[in-house]
Here is the input.
Amino acid sequence: MATISWSEDLSVGVHILDADHRLLINLINKFEEAIESGAGNAKISILLDGLYDYTDFHFIREEILMRACGYANVDAHHLVHEKLCAQMMEIRKRHASDPSDALNAEIREFLNSWLIKHIKGQDLKYAPVMVDKDLEIAKAHASLIHQYSEVESAESTDVF
Ligand SMILES: [Fe+2]
Here is the structure.
């Protein structure tokens, strides 16, 4: 199965969210490469954990920025995120309890399609309301980083 890649048509117009999407694509590709190279279940399990954790963080960040910019459909978008997180959690649990080639094939199918589908089907809808909202985005992002790190630093705004 081929790896997936980010392209400009997937841009939601917010640098930090595009960067998240590119990072998630890299993590998905690492899973793909691990399967291709016959990596053991321990490594695959670590990759799935990392992918889940970063996806969860990304969804929180995305929802906070959508709200800060006044996007009307955040609640519906949140439900889609919740469903995706639940699917990924289920995958992790199944892999932890009974890893198999068949399950890995199923996970590959899921991982190789969900993110691109989600960006195209959901995320691009909020892109128009994020235009010219650099200040709102920076403020909301600074607050988010503060919550996570409890230390506001100048670095938290460097991502813009
Ligand atoms: Fe999303």
Remarks:
- The mean pLDDT is 92.
- The domain at 14-150 is CATH 1.20.120.50 (Four Helix Bundle (Hemerythrin (Met), subunit A)).
- The CA atoms of residues 87 and 110 lie 9 Å apart.
